Amino acid sequence: MNQLYSVKEEFPGSSSGGKPPPPTPQPMEGLHDIGPPPFLTKTYEMVDDSTIDHVVSWNRGGQSFVVWDPHAFSTTLLPRFFKHNNFSSFVRQQNTYYWTICGLPN
């Protein structure tokens, strides 16, 4: 035993009456899962809404989206999904996520 620290050592079957140690607690499945950031989720929901395809929609390949009416996008959609109506801020944040995903400095 270490002279500086008094530590009681227990081994299975020693002084614990021969009982196996209790199982180690495990976190609930999915408890600490991290989903996509809210900005990306909201953007996806907005672009994927086919009732507003005249304002914003997926491109033909479905790999990016096009804002067809920037004025309506800013005045109608941005305040519904975000706490602002600034198109430039939306584009800036979109670019930040793009460069982060690509692993390149922005």
Q: How does CATH name the architecture of the domain at 38-102?
A: Orthogonal Bundle
CATH superfamily of the domain at 38-102: Winged helix-like DNA-binding domain superfamily/Winged helix DNA-binding domain
Taking the sheet with the most strands, its summary is: 2 strands, antiparallel
Question: How much helicity do the residues have?
Answer: 25-40%
**Rough shape?**
elongated
Query: Mean pLDDT, rounded to whole units?
Result: 81
Per DSSP E runs of 2 or more residues, the count of β-strands stands at 2
CATH topology of the domain at 38-102: Arc Repressor Mutant, subunit A
Give the topology string: H per helix, E per strand: HEEHH
Structural class: mainly alpha
Q: First CA to last CA: what distance?
A: 56 Å
As laid out across the biggest beta sheet, the strand order is 1-2
Can you describe this structure in just a few lines?
By secondary structure, this protein is mainly alpha-helical. It has 3 helices and 2 strands, in the order αββαα.
Describe this structure in words.
It is a single chain. This protein has 3 helices and 2 strands. The longest helix has 16 residues, at 87-102. It has a two-stranded antiparallel sheet. The radius of gyration is 27 Å and the shape is elongated. The protein has a domain at 38-102: Orthogonal Bundle (Arc Repressor Mutant, subunit A). It is mainly alpha-helical and 106 residues long.
